[in-house]
Each structure stands twice: as C-alpha cells, then as structure tokens.
Amino acid sequence: MEYEEPLFFTVMQYADAAERDVVDMVSGNPDWGAPDGISEGLHDYADTGGEQFQYPPSAGLRELRERIAERRGVATERVIVTNGGGMANTLGMARALERFDGSEVLMADPVYPYYPGKAEMLGGVQRFVPVDDTGCLDAADVRAAASDETACIVVNTPNNPTGAVYREETMRELAAVAEDYDAMLVSDEVYDHFDFTGEFTSALALNSEHVVVTNSFSKTYAITGFRVGYVVLPARDAPAARTRNMLTNVATSRPAQAAVLEALRTTDASYHEANRERLRERVETFTAALDRAGAAYTTPEGAFYVLARFPDYPGTMANAKRLIDEAGVAGMPGEAFGAARSDWLRFALVSPRVDTAAERLAEYF
Description:
The chain has twelve helices and 13 strands. It is globular, with a radius of gyration of 20 Å. It is an enzyme of class 2 (transferase).
C-alpha cells in the first residue's frame, strides 16, 4: 500500500476550496470541548515561568508518567510520553523491527493508512490480512499469514475505520501469535474511551513480553492539537525506545503535558460517558439516513466512524470529491484504507452538523 501523500488533507483541502457549504466528516477532530482541567492546567503552567519553561525530560514529565503507569497498572519506567499517538506507534513498530529477525509488519485490511506508511518508512515489509465480517482481524487468519519473517502485528481497537472492538479472546490469541513467531503485537488503543460495548480489553491485560500498547489524549480529551500520547513497552524494550524518542523528537511539549496532567487529576467518568452518549445519538441519526438512502453500513461498537456503501457508488477519491461538490458532504474514500473496503466511504461523526450531513446524503442517494 503506497503512501505518497496524506489523503486526509487532500480531501479536507478539496472541501475547503469548494464553492458551496460542506459538512466536514473527514477528520477525527472531536467537536466537543475539552474538560476544564486542560485550560486550568495551561493557566497554572503559564504562571510558573523560569526553569519550568525549559526542556522537559525526554521520556515525559515524571508525574505524568507515574499517573499513566498507575492507571494502566504498569511500572513507570515502561511508559514514554510521546508527541501524540503517531510517535507512540512509530516507537512501538520501530522497536519490533529492531528487536526481532523478521521484517514483515502484519496489518488489517482495511487499515488506518498511517500504519503502512510507517512500516515502509521504518524499512518494514507490509503484509495485509482482510478483516472478518465484524470488522476485526480473525486470529486464525493472522496465524495463517504469520511466518518467521513476521516482526510486528499492528491492531487498533476500538478500530478506525471499521468501529470494531476486539474482545479479550481475540487479543489473547493475537498475542499468542506474536509470542509463537517471536514478534511484537502493537495495540493502538487511542479510542479506548469510546467503547460502546463495555467489552474492550487492553492488550496490557495480557501481561506479555511481546505486547506494546500505544495511546493518546488527543481524542480522549478533544485536544488533537496538543500532541500528547504515550507508549507502554516491555521493560527490556523501554531503554532503546527512550533513546529513539530522544534522537527523533527530543521531548514532548511541557505545557501540553502539564495540561493533560491536570485533566487526569480532575476529570471524572461523567465527561467520557457524556461523549459516548453524544456519539450513540449521532450514530442513530446518521444510520437512519443511510437506511433511507439504501446504503449498507457499519454500526460502530467503538470509536466514532461509520463506513457506508452506496449503490453503484464505489469509494474512490473521484467519488469522494463528487460527493463534496454535489451533496455538500465530505467523507474519506474507502480505497484510502486498502482494498477490502474500497467500495465504501468513511464518515467521522465528530461534527455538530451530523443531522445536516445525514439529510443531504438521504436526499442525494
């Protein structure tokens, strides 16, 4: 899967240049506000000055790492605070390719396109395994695709773009494949607070030396511009990853880390439940319109994306642009996520105008 240009920005720029009103359902930028702790943490940080305005520790503020470690039930030394979830995934995948003999990176199809892009950038060989009817990787299919050349298995749960939530049994079986083939399971769990099933299982619960978990506060706290994520690695792999992070990234923004730390201290579960309820309502509104349009669609178990397939309207870039021009709705072409869902379009339900988009699609199709 070639990654020559960031297709997300291609679609967004096309929508911005349109000569009509367009509802943006491309980007994963939450439209609801951040918890109060974010702004409070920033204001408090702004008053510190002096040494606190200088480089933070490369692995992240100690107190933030300790709080993350406590929440995730791991040793602090296993946690590295990163420049967003993207850097966390880079560190996890890079460590897998460094530590193990193989060069193949197994990924789902459809796939969040940054994973294959990173695999290629890191010198890995891309290999794709189509998801099953539920939108999950079947562990048996992954085992059949694995070999001595496998260094890394990448999963994302809850999933972008399918909305699938991987159950504990599947996660356990995927970790077993990684162990049996001396590879690393890298589990991107950035949407863990957007699980509608109550059955999300973090790969950290497996207690395996062949598991890396990545995460980010971008979606959790609606702060995609702050760029604060983290990676949890096996103890033996953390020192090498800290060195790579320092050489690649130096450190993550100190004021952004301070804001996240305050949010972790002060944000209760009601903030996350309100966001999940908002998304449940949007899923109902949007899928009802898709029914009227005669579309097939996915009902997400988690995250905030819906895949839709319209009659005689494959998910090409040309059709995504046509939808912008003729219907005033911007979605991502399915072909951007791989071959398995190339007939589909992906819509992000993080817009206050979901109702408008739904009506436009129902009328257009």
